Amino acid sequence: MVQYDLVAKDYSEMIAVDPVKKFAQRPQLLNLLSPKKNELILDIGCGDGTIARMVAKKGASVVGYDASIEQILLAKSKSKGLSNLEFLVSTPTIMSYPKKFDKAFAVMVLLYSDSEDMLQSFFNSTFKLLKPSGTFVILDCLEEKIPFGADSYGRTFVKTGANKAKITFSIPGSNPFAVDMMVFSKEKLESCAKKAGFKSIQWKHLVPNKEGIKIMGAEYWANFIKQNYWEWMILKK
């Protein structure tokens, strides 16, 4: 995730105009997470804090961490005036906090693991940071469903090795950029969750909301629904 130090500004501009994030990822996360006042929620790989701010405005207290110093600096600068937000430079292998969290979420973060051990550490760390009744909501791409080589909603995935790929973002209205990532199967993600100790695993497709369909048109989302390589993973202890 430190590679985002080099593209922090481009990434922040991209997520501000990306229809997939605006009309699918963020609204569905808020629905699945259902943040409430007095809850303490962990944002894993928080980036510039866009989603953390949305959750905080629902009344929850949010702690976000990211390995990218530049992203955390952006998050802090964009979140002035919100007292129920805290941002930390950290990784799952060293992340600690004096209180346990009610809920945690990681939106398009696990794919930036640099090894299978790092992937497992995301699950292990989050399990330990959650309360006994805690919930962990994840959005990731499933390797077996990714349309490698084809442009998919401003994203092109190219295989670069076993479990490895490069993704190029070319969202209209933002500068294109590319980053390296790892891709994992549904089976692998479930195995990591169970190994960490999570007892309940549910999967849900990522879908656009009504506003997105109205603004962008049903035709725009046709291939999105067919491809369906984005999946929500909802874990409970």
Approximately how much helix is present in the residues? 25-40%
The CATH superfamily title: Vaccinia Virus protein VP39
Count up the helices. Answer: 8
Shape: globular
CATH architecture: 3-Layer(aba) Sandwich
Largest sheet: 7 strands, mixed
Question: Ends: how far apart?
Answer: 26 Å
Please name the CATH topology. Answer: Rossmann fold
The tally of domains stands at: 1
Q: Could you give the order of the helices and strands? A: HHEHEHEEHEEEEHEHHE
The strand count comes to 10
Main CATH class: Alpha Beta
Strand content: 25-35%
Q: pLDDT under 50 segments (min length 5)?
A: none
Which strands sit side by side, in order, in the main sheet? 3-2-1-4-5-10-9
The secondary-structure class comes to alpha/beta
- Indicate the radius of gyration in whole angstroms: 17 Å
- Overall residue-averaged pLDDT value: 93
Overall description:
The chain has helices at residues 4-17, 19-33, 50-56, 69-78, 116-129, 186-196, 210-216, 222-227; strands spanning 40-44, 61-66, 85-89, 101-107, 130-141, 155-161, 164-169, 177-182, 200-205, 230-236. With 237 residues, the chain is of the alpha/beta class. The protein has a single domain (4-142, 182-236), classed as Vaccinia Virus protein VP39 (Rossmann fold, 3-Layer(aba) Sandwich). The strands form 2 sheets. Strands 3-2-1-4-5-10-9 form a 7-stranded mixed sheet. Strands 6-7-8 form a 3-stranded antiparallel sheet. Helix 5 links the parallel strand 4 (101-107) and strand 5. Helix 1 (4-17) packs across helix 4 (69-78).
